[in-house]
Design goal:
Helix content is 70%, strand content 0%. The protein is mainly α.
Length: 204
């Protein structure tokens, strides 16, 4: 996350840096983005950038947290409300992120954000140890609530299920940007995730 030096900047300067970052992160996937472009567009020195952020991934993580808002806090509430039902949790996750995307002017940035998310472990581009520990605890709690109702044998298999559900959700969020009707996009997402819930083999 940004340093205190960044947070202490005048609001106008912070917004100028974030606007430049939004523009660059919307242009290409994160591995192809350029700090040079960001600092030139924001009219700051390259050295100043590193006083504000550890690297471009650090800046992207912050941008993403602003876009998604307090999803983590809401997610914990949903987990509690749905008693850990992972299918309902992922439906909420999809709906929440689609709603966020609808109110964003820059759909290119929204697309790049989700095309940059590859697995459950970096859903929020989490790299810090304390956040990883929190994610690990959330998964452990979910496993305990789901182990008696899911056809899984251990926590490792449960993590694999979570990764599959994240992959489906991420792909469907990106695909939704191509739909004219978001209702149709959601119906296609539900078909896919419900198919996973039902399974592909008939019971003997």
């Amino acid at each position: 996350m940004p340093t205190n030096t960044f947070f202490n900047l005048p609001e106008e300067k912070k917004q100028k840096i974030l606007k430049a970052a939004n523009k660059e992160f919307a242009r290409v996937p994160i591995e192809q983005t350029s700090i040079k472009n960001i600092v030139e567009d924001a009219e700051i020195a390259r050295g100043s950038f590193y006083q504000y952020f550890e690297d471009k991934e650090d800046l992207f993580e912050y941008i993403m947290s602003l876009k998604i808002g307090d999803m983590e806090k809401n997610l914990n509430k949903i987990i509690e409300r749905e008693n850990g039902n992972i299918i309902k949790i992922f439906i909420y996750l999809y709906d929440h992120l689609i709603e966020v995307g609808k109110i964003r002017k820059n759909s290119k940035l929204f697309r790049q954000i989700f095309e940059n998310i590859k697995t459950s472990d970096n859903l929020m581009l989490i790299r810090k140890k304390e956040m990883n520990k929190r994610l690990e605890k959330t998964l452990q709690d979910l496993y305990k609530k789901n182990k008696d109702i899911l056809n899984i044998k251990d926590e490792e298999e449960f993590k694999l299920v979570i990764e599959i559900l994240f992959a489906i959700t991420r792909r469907r969020i990106v695909a939704s940007l191509k739909y004219k009707d978001l209702k149709e996009a959601r119906e296609d997402f539900l078909k896919e995730i419900k198919f996973i819930e039902k399974g592909i083999l008939k019971e003997n």
